[in-house]
Amino acid sequence: xxxxxxxxxxALVLGVANRRSLAWAIADALAAxxxxxxxxxxxxxxxxxxxxxxxxxxxxxxxxxxxxxxxQVRALFETLxxxxxxxxxxxxxxxYAPRQELEGQFLQTSLEGWRTxxxxxxxxxxxxxxxxxxxxxxxxxxxxxxxxxxxxxxxxNYNVMGSAxxxxxxIVRQLAFELGPRQVRVNAISAGPVATLSARxxxxxxxxxxxxxxxxxxxxxxxxxxxxxTALFLCSPLASGITGSVIFVDAGYHIMGI
Length: 258
Ligand code: NAP
What we know:
Layout: E1 10-14, H1 22-32, E2 36-41, H2 47-54, E3 61-64, H3 70-84, E4 89-92, H4 111-134, E5 141-147, H5 160-179, E6 184-191, H6 205-215, H7 224-234, E7 246-249
Parallel strand pairs: 1-2, 1-4, 2-3, 4-5, 5-6, 6-7
Helix pairs in contact: 1-7, 3-4, 4-5
Bound molecules: NADP nicotinamide-adenine-dinucleotide phosphate.
Residues 15-17, 20-23, 42, 46, 66-68, 93-96, 120, 146-148, 191, 193-194, 196-199 line the site of NADP nicotinamide-adenine-dinucleotide phosphate.
């Protein structure tokens, strides 16, 4: 028996780069609960990876989508509309800042770096939610984004990505308010550090992993599967009363003072 049964539900997951991606852990958990999957990847470079992963879940749709290209965002949702007619779940697991902005002084953040980080990592939630909501029916739906504690605390080198995550979390709350009457719930998971492709681009990331392991109440780093499980819960009817929330999946690190 499935603990959570999402058979018949249709989920779009943005941000699968490879098998280490948090987006993949989430997609895998949703598919295991019976969801139909659509996986969007940034560009053709990633297609092979994503195809290989998707083969584990027969019938998954695959589509390229660079979230900074409005045409591609529109085309992605048109593809979904043609294939499924409707959508129940949107998972936004996308972030990017130019590498030089993720080391050194925040004071030196360039306008271009700021714009890129904000556009890819925060505004894209608005752009994709707008399209997703159009496809969500009377039963409503669930929108989920991935964030990090640097939205509210200082993490050296995280720099402009902290600003982007603060904006992202605000978008989650504002959308939760606006979309609540349509029964669309909007939440975020604040994950502890996980060694993924983009996380490795942050200077000092390996030390950060070790620090979390030592200080977190559970005395370990989290596993991507734990993010997948929490995402599954948040997208399921078991979380029907939860919207506008940031849920921490970080082995408890965020409660610590020292
Ligand atoms: P990841 O596997 O590298 O995923 C990030 C994804 O964003 C990649 O698929 C990347 O594609 C995609 N992306 C970047 N620019 C894009 C664009 N313009 N259009 C479409 N997609 C784009 O890393 P991840 O750690 O799983 O990150 C997923 C989410 O979790 C992010 O929001 C991240 O901030 C958040 N998060 C991660 C951690 C962690 O420690 N790993 C902790 C807390 C929160 P490319 O590979 O082609 O750039």
